[in-house]
Amino acid sequence: MAEFSTSLEKPDSRPAGGLAAAMGRPAAQAPTGRAALSIRNLTKTYASGTQALKGVSLDIAEGDFFALLGPNGAGKTTVIGIVMGLVTKTAGTVSVFGHDIDRDHARARKFIGVVPQELNFNIFEKVMDIVVNQGGYYGIPRKVAIERAEEILHPLGLWEKRWEVSRTLSGGMKRRLMIARALVHRPQFLILDEPTAGVDVELRRGMWDYLRSLRESGTTILLTTHYLEEAEQLCKHAAIINHGEIIASGTIKDILARLKSERVTLDLAAPAAQQAAALLAGYRPVVVDPSTVEVEVDEGRGIGPAVVTLQDNDIPVQMVRPKSGRLEEVFLRLTSGNGGAP
Amino acid sequence: MSPAEIWTSFYTIIRKDVVRILRIWPQTFLPSIVTSILYFLVFGAFLGSRIGAFDGVPFINFVVPGLVMLGVVTNAFSNVATVMFSSKFMARNIDEILVSPTPPIVLVAGFVTSGVVRGVLVGISVLVVALFFAEISFHSVPVILLFLVLTSIALALAGLINGVYAKSFDGISIVPTFVLAPLIYLGGVFYSVDVLPAFWQQVTHFNPLFYVIDGFRYGFLGISDVSVGISLAVLLAVNLVFAGIAWYFIRTGLGLRQ
Ligand SMILES: Nc1ncnc2c1ncn2[C@@H]1O[C@H](COP(=O)(O)OP(=O)(O)OP(=O)(O)O)[C@@H](O)[C@H]1O
Ligand SMILES: [Mg+2]
User: Which residue spans within A244-324 are E strands per DSSP?
Assistant: First the structure.
């Protein structure tokens, strides 16, 4: 755990380049090498005094499928709000496909489509009108926008509902409506802030397929999510943000594989979890049930010695399973190791 | 954005709101029409003959311009205040425009224009209704149109300012009831300032809506308490002040960004 902590959890203890290199950042470069999004030293202090971002730097290459992960209140929506111009930044720079959002804001915005975390359409407007009017705000003539709406609403399963008032849509349909609205100006870069929150499993998979197809047609995608599986299924690269700081970034495989293998579940052949926990005190054991104990394993030591210790004490281990962590647990561990931050 | 794209965005904002205004006509047109019918009945058909002529014209004819303005003022104002407030606080759907490349000045121009459209349409509707109750004369159509449009713009801008500052629904209903209504009723809808005691005549001259009504009435009847040039100057000045405040909002992000 200790060694792991330094490489993943304490970027401040290393030069930024070191961390990026360690986490395989170079592999993030798409063939063109163009950055879809480039954020440098972004800080945000809200009027209330909350310091939501404390110097965030982030690069997303063109063609990437990128996950921005972090616990509630970490600053994900704030980052997205600043990129979209809905939140003013305190300091730092943001550019979208090379266009600075301050100096070249109209150009920068044309590249981006955004699906916000909260529903933000007028529930008294019709599905079709919401999509077509959004096109209008991007300068797309009504006739063209109507044609595009058809192309977009079909695959999202909203075509039948196009003349319905949006209030009458189901929760999942409302989320898909926000995706449709974000796509009408054919953005090259799509940002989704928890698009699958409150969407059932089947629908979520449908949305994943749709996002994958967008990605395959060349759209760069940034996604925030609380579902580890979602990031795993979809994304190539990821960054973890906590308390307004990026605490890890790299390929999703890298981050998740290492995080997940850390905590291990031991199924014992006998109901001796309490004794096992006592024997493995150095492994931060947690008794799950009378014959299951969970331990933390650091890379250097491995799980071997723990198993041997138990065998030597006549507690045979039946099975060793990597604990497929929920994202929240991963965060919890990452952050609790980080100098005891709350 | 290219000029064509800006025009598309501007048109989209207006179209969307005008469609809404027409769809919910019982809320947007009907109240002003019903109110003015009541006034026309009371002051024209029922009391008109007793009150007699006012400044040499039948009382009902004297009252019509002021009642048209009543509809114009409240509707231009409420439209922008309500749209601004509800798209900011209720659905937060103003973000749809804020995330787009549409410049803030186009957003403001679109909202204000929608308010002007509603003010003018309601004004015309009341005028059409008035035709059934009074003999309307048109002394100067350009003056009528000028006052109609400039008043709508001024009140639409005022509604925008109110909508930006309002933090609750009360915040946008206070002004029409407690500021606009007194100003307009005391601004000479039903009388010429000549009939007032000297003190109240003085006070009335500080009421901008007095000039609005007086100038507008001149457009119909060719009579006025103050010269129409002065009324026009006051109306232009009010427009400039409100436009200046709106411009300040645009520079500072309309109070819409956190
Ligand atoms: N408008 C605001 N005014 C003041 N503080 C805010 C505002 N919006 C967010 N914050 C604060 O900024 C911090 C970051 O919030 P943010 O919404 O960016 O988190 P998040 O990572 O998106 O969380 P979640 O996963 O819950 O959506 C939080 O402490 C939050 O309370
Ligand atoms: Mg959020």
Answer: 245-251, 263-268, 286-289, 292-296, 317-322
Put simply, the answer to whether B93 touches A133 (Cβ < 8 Å) is no
- Range 9-48 of A in CB contact (< 8 A) with B: 46-47
* pLDDT tens-digit readout, A259-291: 655 678 899 988 888 888 888 888 888 888 998
Question: Domains of chain A by range and CATH?
Answer: 6-30+79-252 (3.40.50.300), 261-334 (3.30.70.100)
Q: A137: number of CA atoms within 13 Å, CB side?
A: 28
Q: Is the pLDDT of residue B201 over 80?
A: yes
- Please name the member of A86, A109, A139 whose beta carbon is closest to the beta carbon of B95: A86
Please give the interface size between A and B, counted as residue pairs whose CB atoms are below 8 Å apart: 86
Residue A20 has pLDDT above 60, yes or no: no
What is the nearest CA distance from A228 to chain B, expressed in angstroms? 29
Instruction: Compare B53 and B207 and report the one with higher pLDDT.
Output: B207
pLDDT of residue B53: 76
Q: Which atom of ligand 1 is nearest to the CA of A70?
A: 21
Q: What is the DSSP letter of B191?
A: S
For residue A31 the two structure tokens come to 């063939």
Q: What is the pLDDT of residue A7?
A: 32
In sequence order, the 6+-apart residues with CB closer than 8 A to the CB of A69 are A76, A224, A225, A231, A238, A239, A240, A241, A327, A331
The answer to whether the CB of A337 is under 6 A from ligand 1 is no
Buried b (16+ CB within 10 A) or exposed e, A31-62: eeeebbbbbeebbbeeeeeeebbeebbbbbbb
Locate tokens 């459209």: which residue? B117
With 50 as the cut, is the pLDDT of residue A188 above it?
yes
Q: What is the mean pLDDT of residues A243-272?
A: 81
Q: One-letter amino acid identity for B57?
A: V
Taking the centre of ligand 2 as the mean of its atom positions, its distance from the CA of residue A116, in whole angstroms, is 9
Q: What is the DSSP string of B110-162?
A: HHHHHHHHHHHHHHHHHHHHHTTTS----S-HHHHHHHHHHHHHHHHHHHHHH
Asked if pLDDT for residue A183 goes beyond 90, the answer is: yes
Structure tokens at A80: 């997205």
**Residues of A numbered 98-117 whose beta carbons fall under 8 angstroms of chain B's beta carbons: which are they?**
105-107, 109-110, 112, 114, 116
For atom 30 of ligand 1, the residue with the nearest CA is: A73
So what's the ipTM on this one?
0.90
- The mean pLDDT value for A315-326 works out to 76
pLDDT at B257 over 80: no
Beta strands across the sheet bearing A112-115: A112-115, A189-193, A220-224, A65-69, A237-242, A245-251
A139 vs B contacts (CB less than 8 Å) = 1-2, 4-6, 8-9, 101
Q: Which of B24, B27, B100 to mutate to test the interface with A (most CBs of A within 10 A)?
A: B100
Cβ of A44 below 6 Å from ligand 1: no
Ligand 1 atom with the smallest distance to the CA of A44 is 12
Domain positions in chain B are 3-252
CA geometry: angle A83, A88, A92, nearest 5 deg:
70
